[in-house]
Specification:
Blueprint lengths: L2 H30 L3 E2 L1 H5 L9 E7 L5 E3 L2 E7 L4 E7 L11 E8 L5 E8 L8 H19 L6
Parallel strand pairs: 1-2, 5-7
Antiparallel strand pairs: 2-4, 2-6, 3-4, 4-5, 6-7
């Protein structure tokens, strides 16, 4: 084999190794990517079925039910709600009426089964995505309530 052919083969092998490595990294990144959805987006079927994602909003007042280590509560964005079931110890800052983000999967029965629950850590802070989603849901709720013929 001529030196020129060896060089071309080495460059081709390098490009092939780089392409395979890039494909593996992108595949790992895609499978670990977790998106954030609000209860309104879940009700509009925008959330993935059979994949893990995060739901965020406020814990509805009066919705927390404890049964041993299993906790049931409702997350709301003031327009829609999603029932959540979590088995484990909740964060110390978890309270009714406070912000929460839960990671898990939506079951076929419409109940979100959380593997992890994160509570809002500061009275004034909310992730920008959650604040924006809550504001949009609140505006949609106002618009629907003021439309002629809207159910009240």
């Amino acid at each position: 084999m001529k030196p020129r052919h060896k060089r071309i083969a080495a460059i081709g092998a390098g490009v092939l190794v780089l392409a395979v490595g890039t494909a593996l990294v992108l595949n790992a990144f895609q499978s670990n990517l977790v998106f954030f959805y609000t209860p309104t987006q879940i009700a509009n079927n925008e959330a993935p079925q059979g994949r893990s994602f995060r739901v965020g909003g406020m814990v509805e007042v009066g919705s927390v039910r404890r049964e041993g280590v299993e906790v049931r509560f409702v997350v709301t964005d003031t327009a829609r709600t999603v029932p959540v079931v979590y088995s484990g110890i909740l964060p110390d800052l978890f309270r009714e009426g406070k912000g929460v983000v839960a990671q898990g999967q939506l079951g076929p029965d419409g109940v979100f089964r959380a593997r992890e629950v994160l509570a809002k850590h500061d009275e004034n802070y909310m992730p920008p995505e959650a604040a924006e989603a809550l504001a949009k849901a609140h505006e949609k709720g106002k618009a629907a309530a003021t439309m002629p013929g809207a159910a009240r």
